[in-house]
Structure formats: C-alpha cells, structure tokens
Amino acid sequence: MKIALIIENSQAAKSETVHAALTAVAEPLGHQVFHYGMYTPEDKASLTYVMNGLLAGVLLNSGAADFVVTGCGTGMGSMLAANAMPGVFCGLVIDPTDAFLFGQINDGNAISMPYAKGFGWAAELNLQDCYRKLFEGERGLGYPRERAEIMRRNRGILKDLKAATCHDMLTVLKSVDQDLLKAAVAGERFQEHFFANATDEGIRDYLRGVVGG
C-alpha cells in the first residue's frame, strides 16, 4: 500500500517525529511511505489544513496514494477539509482505540491526527501504536464481528451517498481557486512522488499543467 504523509504548517516542526513513527511501523509491514511535506517550518511551500484536504483528494483520487495520514493542531481542520473531497473518507484518530475502530468499522482511506493537543512526553509511542492498530492485519472486518455485515453495507451506502453529493476530482480541480491548488501541490517533492505513482491520466495531465504553469 502507498501511504502519503501530509503535515500542516503549524506542526511542521514535528514532521521528522511523525515521519519516523509512521515509517517504523508501515515499512516493515510492506507498505511504502511518501512524505509530501511539510518537512520543516522553513519550507517555502507552506501547507494549511485546507490544503491538506485538497492534497489528500488529489493523491487518493489519482491513485498516487492508497491511504493518507495527515493532521493539524487538533486534527479537526484537516479531517473536515479531507472529507470535503470526493472519494475521501477521513477519520479523526487520537489514540490506538480510535485507530483500531476506524480501521475495522469505517475502513476509510485517510486519518487526521492532533499534533498539538495532547502531544507530550512519549508522543511518538502513541503515534506508533496508532499506526500499528491501523495497518497491521486486515481492515474492515467489523467490530464487534457480529455486526460486520451491516457495517459493510453502511460503508457502501456512505460511498454511494458521497458520490452523489460530490463532483469528480477532475471537476473539483478545475473549479477550485487555482492559486490555492498551486500552493497545495508546490511541495519540493510533490512532482517526484506524484508523477511516479499517479494512475489517473486526467488528473495527472491537469496537474502537470498546473505545476508547469
């Protein structure tokens, strides 16, 4: 699985800690981690939580990523922005129980975490425990298991509902403020990671024009 990491500007100083915790868990399980920034508070490309959501939509809908790990100070803003995108189902994960239940019940494709609220001593251990609960084993099995079938049906209903209420991602990209879009994809490694992994030709071609313009 291709996992994309996106860090918001107010929490960029913790980027290395978050990235190290994610790779320590995900890579031994056979997943690839692609860090889309921010990398340091001094990065020229600064990501707001709104841009986090837009970038998550780009990565998931293009096939550049199978799962997105993002966040902000409280985790709320990035979650809301991500869930505004078509095809993105983002949960707020604070502790390992959240991670386990989101993976088993909702089986979404993105999580948002609080990197300021409650981020204290041994925070990196909580991150690793969350990622382990999320990425170890098979997701979507249901909890409790006897409710697995109704949970599966509800996920399908939610997916259909979102498809009916959202435009497709290419339409979104053409409709949003283009300066906002350019800022969201301006990270120093965006082109390196994105164009090597994206499979949707329409989104890929449109963004090639955006980053090249």
Question: Can you walk through the features of this model?
Answer:
The protein has a 5-stranded parallel sheet, sandwiched between helices. It has helices spanning 15-26, 49-62, 76-83, 96-106, 123-135, 148-165, 169-175, 178-184, 190-197, 201-212; strands at 2-5, 32-35, 67-72, 90-92, 110-114. With 213 residues, it is an alpha/beta fold. The longest helix has 18 residues, at 148-165. It has 10 helices and 5 strands. α1 links the parallel β1 (2-5) and β2 (32-35).
Describe the main β-sheet briefly: 5 strands, parallel
Number of helices: 10
Strand tally:
5
Q: What is the SS-derived class?
A: alpha/beta
Key words describing this protein structure:
213 residues, alpha/beta, five-stranded parallel sheet, 10 helices, 52% helix, globular
Topology (SSEs and partners):
Elements: E1 2-5, H1 15-26, E2 32-35, H2 49-62, E3 67-72, H3 76-83, E4 90-92, H4 96-106, E5 110-114, H5 123-135, H6 148-165, H7 169-175, H8 178-184, H9 190-197, H10 201-212
Parallel strand pairs: 1-2, 1-3, 3-5, 4-5
Helix pairs in contact: 1-5, 2-3, 2-8, 4-5
Summary, kept brief:
With 213 residues, the chain is α/β, with parallel strands linked by helices. It is 52% helix and 10% strand.
